[in-house]
Amino acid sequence: MQVFGSKELLEDVINRDLCIGCGACVGRCPYFKSYKGKTAMLFECDLSEGRCFAHCPKVEVDLDSLSTTFFQKAYDGNPLGSYMEILGAKAGDKIAKAEFQNGGSVSALIALALETGLIDAAVLTDREGIIPTPRLVTNAQEVFECASSKYMAAPTLSALNNGIEQGFERMGVVATPCQATAVAKIRTNPVKRANFIDPVNLVIGLFCTWALDTRQMLSFLSDQPDMADDIRSADIRSMDIPPPPEEVMVIETGTKKTKIPLKEIRPMICESCQFCPDMTAEWSDISVGAFEGKPGWNTLVIRTKKGKNLVEEAVEKGYLQVEKIPEESIKHLAGAALNKKRNSFIKNVEKGLVNTGEKEGRSAIRLSDDVLKKITAQKENAV
Amino acid sequence: MTRLIEAEEGSRQLFMGNEAIARGALEAGMKVAAGYPGTPSSEIIENLAEVSEKAGIYVEWSANEKVAMEVAAAASFAGLRSLCVMKQNGVNVASDFLLHLAGSGTRAGMVLVPCDDPGALSSVNEGESRHFARLVEVPLLEPGDFQEAKDMVKWAFTLSEEIRNLVMVRSVTRLSHASGNVIMGNIAESKNLEAETKNSAFFKHDGFILDQMEGAVISAPVTYKHGQQHEKLKKAIEFFETSPFNTYTGPENPELLVITSSVCSLYTNEALQMLNAKDRVGLLKLGTTWPLPPKLVAKHLKMTDKILIVEEVIPFLEESVKTLAAELGPEIGVKTFFGKRDNTIPSTGELNPDIIASALSGILGIDMEPVPEAYTKRAGELAFLNAPVRDLTFCPGCPHRASFWSIKNALTMDNREGFICGDIGCYSLAMLPSGFSALKTLHSMGSGTGVASGFGKLGQFGLNQPVVSVCGDSTFFHSAMPALVNAVHHRSNLTMIILDNSGTGMTGFQPHPGLNEDALGKDAPAVDIEAVVRAAGANVTVCDPFDLAETRETVLKLLEDNNGVNVLILRQICALSPEKKGKKQFEMSVDENICVGENCGCNRLCTRIFSCPGLTWDREKKVSRIDEVICAGCGVCASICPLQAINKKEVA
Ligand SMILES: Cc1cc2nc3c(=O)[nH]c(=O)nc-3n(C[C@H](O)[C@H](O)[C@H](O)COP(=O)(O)OP(=O)(O)OC[C@H]3O[C@@H](n4cnc5c(N)ncnc54)[C@H](O)[C@@H]3O)c2cc1C
Ligand code: SF4
Ligand code: SF4
Question: Among A24, A176, B595, B632, which residue's CB has the most CB atoms within a 10 Å radius?
Fold first, then answer.
């Protein structure tokens, strides 16, 4: 993996509007700060190599190298990534009701991992009004406070950096695919620090097709006559995208539920998401998403032995309830994931972001040419 | 500085130019002096303020230059000699009143001393005050040395009373701030004509309307008064024709005549000496530079065919001489002129003997080596080896560094390409790296907020960048108040940040209307900036800029607000203020074991970016350290270190 400095990060990512604001570069040094969803570089840093560049999920992502590290094999372009098993799941009887997004599996698994000591802290995403805010938590109560999805790109990983500063060494991270990619990069110690300790012991990935730009959402909602007051009082309870054919986003505040047509929401999707090839957070122990056609349930993609063990323990202790998932649903999921992968790679290639830069030395993503060809040659799936 | 009044008649004193000017005014029996601080003029008012009680005079630092001139004019109208002092561009501020004052005329002697700054040694302009003399048509004197600085000011009052109009005496940095021998005149005997007869100030205003001495003092009827003004100038010319301030030295028939004024006459003298050309070149040093005395000039122009005019900044003298030469053509014949217009003399910057010597040697065909080569070489070597490159920087412990740190960070985090409209004061330095290159416009006093008020109205054309202006406390009273009122009234979207360091820091802590002290150091009612802002109808917040986190959060919040004018007062006393100087609030230290220095994670944020001179980089150990001697103990750097390696301990 090639490592450069903040100057290159600024050129390749921030100035190209590819920054998703994941927070991987925030909190390690005084130069990067996140504010209302945007990462800003406060002053110039002249180092030729830095963790900011090394950890960024939007530049120099070497898929073969990550796959070899985490799954002991070269990257093969499988739409759902490498996995052991796919299940349907929801929080078990032992878990009290909370504002879960779908089945509450994520919160249940993290709560268990904290209780058993598998992890010593969890990196989650809370909200202040409409703005997603990173939060480092250490007990189940706090985990449930962070339940539910914030559909905006969030600087979650600044809480991971914060945890490292505080000396946590076995953290659990709940991450969107881009955030999970950054976590994977961080764990490979790309700057080759001598006394490096992997600070992460569990990654729970979230499915993701896109995220919204916080500032655009903020100003959009503030301009909605019936939302302005709730936005001002920052009393946002949940956001949901019910399954098709509804085509709306439902935002619930302390006073009401408001439906906003997705066609008004889509223009606020982060530019960077179009270049993201990952729908199911492939660099994780377990990935979790909605269970299409079964409200109140999750789809679980179990990728590692550690993930499998955690799920089994959760079932055993009544934290999780699982069931088989129909083959049809998996096919459908893989189809959607393939579309995202294919379309984004085509875009990446168009923009000269894949495997380029033998001379210039920099690229957004690297993978074998054969796999790249295989992915982009596929037909779009009807899903 | 009681020497200023106590030095006896006939004694020789080493006086700074500005002291000489002050002494000249005292010898003339001047009773009222007003000014606005600005380098290089400030010491004149300061010196007069110090002796004001002993001398029985009234001295004030006015809110701005225009007000200063108005205050001084009132004294003249009431029969008291008065003096008004400012730096070059201050005259621009005062100019509207100046124009009307020149039209109405004055009564008791009134003298305006502008101090120009050729080369902009401590200015953001190379402005000229001389052309104001021509513009508003009042006589102009330019002292060529320290003795003349005193004597000319004294005589200027006499001239002013002879012609009943304002007289300008222009100084420059190298005269105001250098020192030389001055032989004292008499203060005790000096008398103020009107005060003597009336024994007290009185403004007579019920006389005949056209009687300047007894009727209303106005510039109308304009053409009548303007005509009178021209008569006054003719009278001034009469005096100038025989003035001892105009001197000629050199042969009767020189190869070249140099016409010069001000400190350039000293430089020219030195240059002639260097070139050993005194027997070839005549030197006409003019002290009365506008309007020029035509007979005197004609007499000297006749001496030779080649004329070099030496002066700094604009070709003011050059143009006047050329105009005269054209008028005198039939009498004096065709001349060849050298000066700024043909690039013999540089058209910008300060002059010095070397520059003039090289101009002279070109015309005279002398091979010149103005500076011995060995000297140049050695000086270059020494400069290279020993002299570190020093950028202009804020002082250790300066609140402005902290303020701009937070404002700049907030603007960057806000990420909408917001910008700061700068203003005039120490904080103008924020256009340089010391202030994180934060200022994006910088013009005259008070114009930061005025320009911001304009930017803040461009929303309807799509400008959605946050607009911030900064201004100092003194600048606020000087001229930012009208801009603020304008912005409030027009609902302009902007954040005005008042950097209140409780003094006119840049020019040496002169008081301003916001402080409860006047020019004499006496108790005075302070005008509360906060209350003024509130009364104008703007929201106002006050913060301590040393609290970096709170300041940044506050600025971020204000940037969000799209609803008119928000004012933030960042209040913290200047590090050099008498209250603070030499007293450390905190004992600072750097923990070498925690400091990561150049490594990823900091990369010398404190010494590379924040760059307070109190912090130094230990090249060998590769850690930062505190320079105990320089550190002012403000404690701010403790909160910028990302690793908390910088410790502060309250000094008991
Ligand atoms: C931006 C975004 C887009 C998504 N898109 C899809 C999709 O297209 N299809 C699909 O099936 N599922 C999607 N999901 C996942 C889905 O919304 C649920 O998060 C997931 O099904 C888990 O549900 P749960 O009930 O177990 O979660 P809960 O138990 O409620 O826990 C939710 C967890 O998500 C974390 N979280 C919330 N917002 C963010 C954020 N912005 N960034 C990082 N972490 C966050 C919280 O820390 C919390 O731990 C998306 C999630 C996000 C955040
Ligand atoms: S689509 Fe990709 S880039 Fe966008 S938020 Fe999701 S994981 Fe991040
Ligand atoms: S405490 Fe720090 S910032 Fe303040 S003067 Fe000393 S070195 Fe400079």
Answer: A24
